[in-house]
Every structure is written in structure tokens, then in C-alpha cells.
Amino acid sequence: MHSSGHRHYCVYILTNRSKTLYVGVTTNLNRRVWEHKFGNGSEFCKRYKIDRLVYYESFDDVRNAIDREKRIKGWLRIKKIQLIVAVNPTWSDLSEGWYERHLYAPASAQVLRFAQDDKLKREIGDELRADS
After folding, report:
1. Is residue 72 one of the residues assigned to a domain?
2. Which of 3, 49, 72, 80 is the most exposed place for a label (fewest CB within 10 A)?
3. How far apart are the first and last CA of the chain?
4. Three-class secondary structure assignment of the chain
């Protein structure tokens, strides 16, 4: 709840080192990301060690949030990647610094970040050409 007295709903995309994508909706982004990072979110996220918040958007109406989540889930992978890259080109973990080290983070190192390297650019280009 916010001080305005009404709820906000977030649609979010999480990923892992292999760039497996997970789309969800929540009323509490901070809590939900924490659950995913510490292995209490979903079986899918736990199985694939999905632990990086790379995209989110906020809504005042739950129906709009759920509709947006369903639309994004229905997209091809390349379109989801384009959405992420449009606002977060380096695939940085937007929740970095929110919590102590999480379940999948290396004990003696910072959480590795995605870099928009030549390999990723080639993969996106290959997927775009395949869609054409």
C-alpha cells in the first residue's frame, strides 16, 4: 500500500545467467522479487535459478496489470527481449542492492551482470531474421 491509499500492481520480468525469462504480476514487487531470489517464488524460478529483475512497469488497476502480463506472456521471446533492451540495454539487475546476498549469488563476488556483448547482439539479430 502506498500513502495515497490505493494499491499499485507491477508486471515484471526476471531472468537468470542463461537469459531464461519469467513474467509475473504482483502487488509488492520488493517482496515478490525477494521470494524469487531466495527460492520461494515459483517452482519454475527455483528450478532455473531465475534471480534478476530486468524489467517492470506499474499499474493502478489490477485488470490492466493482468492484461499486460497476459499480453507479454503471449509474445515471442524476441519481442520480450526487445522490451527489456528498450529500457535496460545492459540487462542490469534492477533489484541489485535491495537485499543481502541471495541464494544463487556467488559468496565471494558481486552478482554477475549481463553485458550487451556482440554474442547477444548476434543472437537477437538471428532471432529477428528468423521471425521475418
Report:
1. yes
2. 3
3. 44
4. CCCCCCCCEEEEEEECCCCCCEEEEECCHHHHHHHHHCCCCCHHHHHHCCCEEEEEEEECCHHHHHHHHHHHHHCCHHHHHHHHHHHCCCCCCCCCCCCCCCCCCCCCCCCCCCCCCHHHHHHHHHHHHHHC
Answer yes or no: is 123 within a domain. Answer: yes
Residue 15 to residue 1: CA distance in whole angstroms:
26
Say what the pTM is. Answer: 0.72
Domain count, the chain: 1
Domain limits for position 95: 9-131
* Distance between CA atoms of residues 94 and 21, nearest Å: 15
Query: What is the rounded CA–CA span in Å between residue 22 and residue 17?
Result: 13
pLDDT digits (tens, 9 = 90+) for 81-99: 999 999 999 999 999 888 7
Does residue 2 lie within any of the structural domains?
no
Whether residue 44 lies inside any domain: the answer is yes
- Percentage of the chain with pLDDT > 70? 71
